[in-house]
Amino acid sequence: MESVKNALQVMFDYQNADGSLPESGPPLLQQKSDTYHMWTLIGTYNYMLYTGDADFVLKNWPKYLKAIDYIYAKVDSSGLLNQTGTRDWGRWNTGSNNTAANVLLFHTLQTSALLATWLNDTTSLASTWRTRATSLQTALLTHSFDPSYGAFRDNATSTSLYPQDANSLALLFSLIPPNSSTALSISTALTKNWTPLGAQPPELPGNISPFISGFEIQAHFKARRADRGLELIRRSWGWYAKHLNGTYSSTVIEGYRVDGTFGYRAERGYENDASYPWVEFWAYERDDGVGGGD
Predict the structure, then answer these.
(1) Which residues contact 279 (CB under 8 A, 6 or more apart)?
(2) pLDDT digits over 259-271, tens only?
(3) What residue stretch is flagged as signal peptide (predicted)?
(4) How do 207-208 and 256-257 pair as beta strands?
């Protein structure tokens, strides 16, 4: 966990004056990503969860609070986050009241409340953040959920795009109760994107993202559909692990095309970036869900 601690510390060390956190550390120091900003905060919670290292969190707590204030200030009169830092994981369209970014904020608020509780904060932060999370949950269900389709839209418009990322995260982060009929309908809706080689994100057509598919796998387990989670592992990771032109028995690839070629996001000159450890997310589900006690 030392590497996780060091990576998080770099993000806090390079926090901007307005409270925003960089998307990446030096030498790139890319900026303007609301979602990466929130992932750093969620990562801080995860680090505390697995290590109990309260000293690390306390050391960075003033910066953490500034980061929370920065992102929550983007919630507008609709009750939804207005995503202005639009750099993201690779989906084509971002910004405005993007549903995935709003689900991330919901989880950021929930995990922040837990951190405040663990740190014995006495300023009512935990209560405030839980209340804000509940309000955001209500706004998402009101403005972004399509009951006729049984899943979340890409944003709070009448769009017919039902993204893999937002719907997977809504289940994974319990925005929707795991044992509910709505959770099952979202799980079913996600399978409509499946191809023989994995799940094709409607928000990134023509491609398969093991990064986002890792969240979907965990989402199916959360919705009590382990059969679907295992099937997606077989289709995506199983196919790649056996691919003679891949890295053979490795699961570390950022993405590939639905036809099995290696031109992930080639439309934007991105076809040479194929190695990322983040696509090992299903291993977490293997340990904590399939083989663990989740």
Answers:
(1) 210, 211, 214, 251, 252, 253, 254
(2) 998 888 988 877 6
(3) none
(4) antiparallel
Please give the Cα distance from 56 to 126 (Å, whole number).
19
- φ, ψ of residue 75 in degrees (nearest 5): -75, 125
pLDDT, residue 285, reads 55
Q: Are 107 and 169 in contact (CB under 8 A)?
A: yes
State how beta strands 198-199 and 145-146 pair: unpaired
Q: Nearest Cα to 265, choosing from 203, 222, 207? A: 207
For residue 251 the two structure tokens come to: 């699961």
Neighbours of 22 (CB within 10 A): 22
Helix ranges (H only) for 52-158 are 54-72, 99-118, 125-143
Alpha carbons 251 and 64: distance in angstroms, whole number: 33
What angle do the packed helices 226-233 and 181-191 form, to 10 degrees?
Answer: 20
pLDDT in tens, 142-179: 999 999 999 999 999 999 999 999 999 999 999 999 99
